[in-house]
Amino acid sequence: MNIIWHEKTKQFHLFNDEISYIIAVNPVGELGNLYYGKRINDKEDMSYVVNRFGLAQVAVDADTETYSMELNRQEYPSFGTTDFGTSAFEVEISNGSKVSSFVYKDHKIYKGKQPLEGLPATYADDSEAMTLEIYLEDVVAKTTLALSYTLFNRYPVVTRHAKFTNIGPSKVKLTKALSACLDLPDQNYQWMQFSGAWARERTPIVKNLGPGSVSIESKRGISSANQNPFVIVKRPNTDDFIGEAIGFSFVYSGNFLAQAEGDTFGRMRVLMGINPDRFTWILEKGQSFETPEVVIAYSDSGLNYLSQTYHSLYNNNLVRGKWKNTPRPILINNWEATFMDFDEEKILKIASKAKEAGIELFVLDDGWFGDRDDDFAGLGDWVENPKKLPQGIPGLARKIESLGMKFGFWIEPEMVNPDSNLYRKHPEWALSTPGRKASLGRHQMVLDYSRPEVVDYIYGMLHKIISNAPISYIKWDMNRSLTEVYSADIPAEQQGMVYHRYVMGVYSLYERLRNDFPDILFESCSSGGNRFDAGMLYYAPQAWCSDNTDAIDRIRIQYGTSYGYPVSSIGAHVSAVPNQQTGRTTSIETRANVAYFGTFGYELDLNHVSHEEFELVKSQVQFMKEYRQLFQFGTFYRLRSPFEADQAAWIVVSEDKEKAIFGFYCMRSNVTMLPGFLKLDGLSADKVYVLNDEEYFGDELMNLGVTLTKLSNNGLSTGQDFISYVEVLEAKK
Ligand code: GLA
Questions:
Q1: Is the pLDDT of residue 717 over 90?
Q2: What's the maximum distance between 2 C-alpha atoms anywhere in the chain?
Q3: Which of 147, 178, 257, 289 is the most buried (most CB within 10 A)?
Q4: Is ligand 1 within 6 A of the CB of residue 528?
Q5: What is residue 324's predicted lDDT score, i.e. its pLDDT?
Q6: Starting at the edge strand that comes first in sequence, how are the strands of the sheet with 2-6 ordered?
Q7: Mean pLDDT of 265-278
Q8: Phi and psi dihedrals of 558, rounded to 5?
Q9: Is 72:50 a contact under the CB 8 Å cutoff?
Q10: Residue from 562, 611, 631 nearest 330 by CA
Q11: 191: Cβ–Cβ under 8 A, 6 or more apart, which residues?
Q12: What is the distance between the alpha carbons of residues 514 and 521, in angstroms, rounded to a whole number?
């Protein structure tokens, strides 16, 4: 890994074993991109890449008369001069102009990586990464810009963000401040986004790119299940196993925009950052604004490698604290078992049975506080309901602990029901626009987390409960989108700052609670997977992946999630059948076979399963305890996509390739079928693996495959849908 500054040619070359990123100060003093991709040798001068000529309708810089930004790839394109593509930012000054030109002043190269203030970001020590900060200035706007690039040593990854500072006497207004732009030299790409809805999160959608724009965004205040803030730009032939791909992952949990724009000259611009729609940021004299981070990863060997890069980077350089690379406790959550209809006795009965099965953590879900017997009331009143919990959270937590389990509970700290003591006391603390009706979502309103006093108040209540009881885990939910966004406490011109300040408020509360209680395992949730993003993983190392717990639907949801996020982050539970969301009935084996490839837990009352099923649950818990390190932190490969066929498969392989576990799922039985084969991946070709007491070479399993005997009844249909396998392979000593 190195970052070289070629003083004479004013070019930077960032490279490690896998990638090169070449940036140059362009003839007008702004920053241009000369190359991004597979590692190439370092050269003093790469300026032959720069185009210098005029064409009809192409505007050129008046001094050089030969240089147009439009004809050259930019690093962080400015607005209003010779580039007609989408700009990465807009700075409006007092005369109303947004035209800008940020020119190179200086730079700094250092080992390691600096944190972003108040924002989640990847981190690295001096041996893991190097950072380049390039300082630019617009003399008219009297504003400086620092562009940061961190190059990781072990990963084909560069992270980017930008920071604006007002150095003049008058205020300036940022009306757009994206985090990164990458201009690519051709348009032979496809765009892959991860779209969905509540209970149907992160379906991969592929579109061809060409001239014109393709974009996804969120305007909901959260990253959303509708579009995930992660996209891949790939070659048309790229699949999980081969081909070139570039990933863009936004380390942020609010409104975002990701866009690819093909220009008339056959090039492709990719942009990512906070959504400029509903964003303005005022910078008074001396103030700065720092954008969140984008993590750009490269693969020339398929999407599995791209995903593995994100998995490993996020496990090692994003997740922090005790739970970093630590196998997660097997939990039981009472939500689908009781909803809000419970008391301490009922909870202890569920917990005792779970303990008998070997489950380690009990999670008390919604309904324990305030006047909350249904979802019309109580949010905001973080005080136990004595009818349900006579000795409060501390009493219940101690009883659960004395059973030999850990205890955790559910909160939704960003919300308030109009029917709550908090709202009656502080209606102005809920987001709403003066004179307009406030929309509701699940009968609740969103607290104005852009106001520090609101965050402080909720912090105080939660801190009190948590510090009085042995709490090991917290599920932090967020169950509606933001509407009528307006903060009662700030002047008109700052209203465009509320969405981002809200997100910063959420991050600040997470950070305070994490600092106070560093051992607590946080799981983020937003009606399931509506805020499953890299920003959240910095605070909460796992996320409830979806409210849809149906095993068959979950295969797709977890498969789609795996493109950008590690197995260790994917909350996955075995729930009761018929499934509450889909009505589908699957075996308890198949339900567990899907949930193993996640953080694994149960969400049902084990008192209500048959004796045989209970025995199976016991052995599932045992099995997960033995292999959870491998499931959650092994190298994960997608093998067969449920979006292409009625079958799905994936595998996790240990770092030394001594052990692997694959999962295979068949959604639908077929008539007249031969058993078929499943080709594995990631094994060592020459090792001999033992699978069900038989021996196979690694290359045999990867090229010929595993025979899927369960799929066929001597060539006829088995008559059974939802057949699944989870099998362990171990290399022979
Ligand atoms: C959301 C969550 C669920 C559950 C309920 C409780 O829908 O996604 O897992 O916690 O809220 O109200």
A1: no
A2: 84
A3: 178
A4: yes
A5: 98
A6: 2-6, 11-15, 19-25, 31-38
A7: 97
A8: -70, -35
A9: yes
A10: 631
A11: 206, 207, 208, 209, 214, 231, 232, 233, 260
A12: 9
**pLDDT of residue 236 exceeding 90:** yes
Q: What number does the ligand 1 atom closest to the CA of 475 have?
A: 10
Tens digits of per-residue pLDDT, 15-66? 999 999 999 999 999 999 999 999 999 999 999 999 998 899 999 999 888 9
What confidence score (pLDDT) does residue 148 get?
Answer: 98
Q: Read off the tokens for 75.
A: 């690093």
Q: What is the pTM of this model?
A: 0.98
**Per-residue pLDDT at 417:** 98
Per residue in 495-516, pLDDT (tens digit) is 999 999 999 999 999 999 999 9
One-letter amino acid for residue 281 of the chain: W
Alpha-carbon gap, residue 393 to 395, rounded angstroms: 5
Question: What DSSP assignment string belongs to 105-128?
Answer: EEEEEEES-PPPTTS------TTT
Alpha-carbon distances, residue 722 vs 44, 73, 507, 587, 700 (angstroms): 59, 50, 41, 8, 27
C-alpha 157 to ligand 1 mean position (Å): 35
Tokens of 344: 């301490």
User: Which ranges of 443-547 would DSSP assign to H, the alpha helix?
Assistant: 452-467, 498-516, 534-539
Q: How confident is the model at residue 672 (pLDDT cuts 50, 70, 90)?
A: confident
Q: What is the C-alpha separation between 223 and 693, in angstroms, rounded?
A: 47
Using alpha carbons, select from 542, 522, 601 the residue that is nearest to residue 354: 601
Please, what's the b/e burial string for 290-319 (b: 16 or more CB within 10 A of its CB; e: otherwise)? bbbbbbbbbbbebbbbbbbbbbbbbbbbbb
Q: Which residue has the tokens 């609740």?
A: 444
The strand pairing partners of 296, in sequence order, are 158, 248
Tell me which residue of 650, 704, 699 sits closest to 677, measured CA to CA.
704
Instruction: Provide the pLDDT confidence category of residue 271 given band limits of 50, 70 and 90.
Output: very high
- Residue 461: phi and psi, rounded to 5, are -65, -45
Q: Is the CB–ligand 1 distance for residue 527 below 6 Å?
A: yes
Whose alpha carbon is nearest atom 12 of ligand 1?
366
Catalytic positions: 477, 547
Query: Which of 590, 536, 596, 584 has its CA nearest to residue 328?
Result: 596
pLDDT for the residue 670? 84
Mean pLDDT of 217-227: 98
Average the pLDDT over 229-253 and give the result. 98
Is 674's pLDDT higher than 90?
Answer: no
Model confidence band, residue 602 (pLDDT cutoffs 50, 70, 90): very high
Ligand 1, closest atom to CA 528?
8
Q: Quick check: CB of 429 below 6 Å from ligand 1?
A: no
DSSP string covering 267-290: -EEEEEEE-STT--EEE-TT-EEE
Point out the least confidently predicted range of 168-172, 669-673, 695-699: 669-673
Beta-carbon count within 10 A of 422 CB: 23
Instruction: Indicate if ligand 1 lies below 6 Å from the C-beta of 525.
Output: yes
Q: Cα 573 to the chain's mean position, in Å? A: 19
Distance, CA of 270 to chain centre: 19
First-to-last C-alpha distance (Å) of the chain: 36
* Interval 625-637: pLDDT, tens: 999 999 999 999 9
* pLDDT (0 to 100) of residue 501: 98
Q: Where are the alpha helices (DSSP H) in 322-451?
A: 335-338, 344-356, 392-403, 421-425
Helix, strand, coil percentages for the chain (3-state, nearest 5):
25, 35, 45
Give the position, in ligand 1's atom list, of the atom nearest the Cα of 365.
10
Question: Which is it for the CA torsion 660, 665, 669, 672, positive or negative?
Answer: negative
